[in-house]
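User: structure tokens for D-glycerate dehydrogenase, please.
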Amino acid sequence: MAKPRIYITRPLPEPAMRMLEGAVEYRMWDREDEPVARESLLREVVDVDGVICLITEKMDAEVIDRMRRSTVIAQVAVGIDNIDVAAATRRGIFVTNTPGVLTETTADMGWAILMATARRVVEGDKFTRSGRWKTWELMGFTGQDVHGATLGIIGLGRIGAAIARRARGFAMTILYNNRRPAEALGAEVGARYVSLDDLLRQSDFVMVSCALTAETRHLIAERELGLMKPTAVLVNIARGPIVDQRALYRALVDRKIWAAGL
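Assistant: Done. Predicted tokens:
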């Protein structure tokens, strides 16, 4: 019996590659530091049984229509907004993802971004490395206190809950907003459900950790940024388009909010 043929859009970690050895025949884009070229992707998917892809690949209807014998698109990520799921469904192609694999890792990174933004770590590092530091200043790079502040989490899923658990160690008041209240999870992590508007008004730090959907695209835009405190920090660890980048730029320039960590 012939082995399944697959196409891999970027080299995978060695343990994953060992699992594939002998089980399938595969071709692979072998450049780790750049996404597969569009013309190569369109050519390579034509005669394979499945594709393993990353979020850098735009798996749209044009690509999927060429996948004439494929039965699966396996995404090495949680989010699947780069894949036209409707087009895949029409062709009978399953779309899979990897939920839970990077929950704690992403929460760590989110917390690192929050801390670095609040305490102006990157600014201070650049200032020092540029040779501009002369002496200690009373109010130099003081930033914002995290301990005891109010954290608003937009999207209390796996990652949002992991963020909330970390916030408890900083004695923070934790608010959250979801499409619907997650009462059991909220109680577990000590987070209180509020409306999005109330979350934005009350929070010292707003952490975006929801999925990108048609409903959440530009969820945080000019109106929402205008509700935030002028001392507030916005941290986005979710997909970029959830925040209107132009509106965020204007809010920062006009000092409607204090800072953003992206």
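User: Anything notable?

Assistant: The chain has two domains: 5-96, 103-261.
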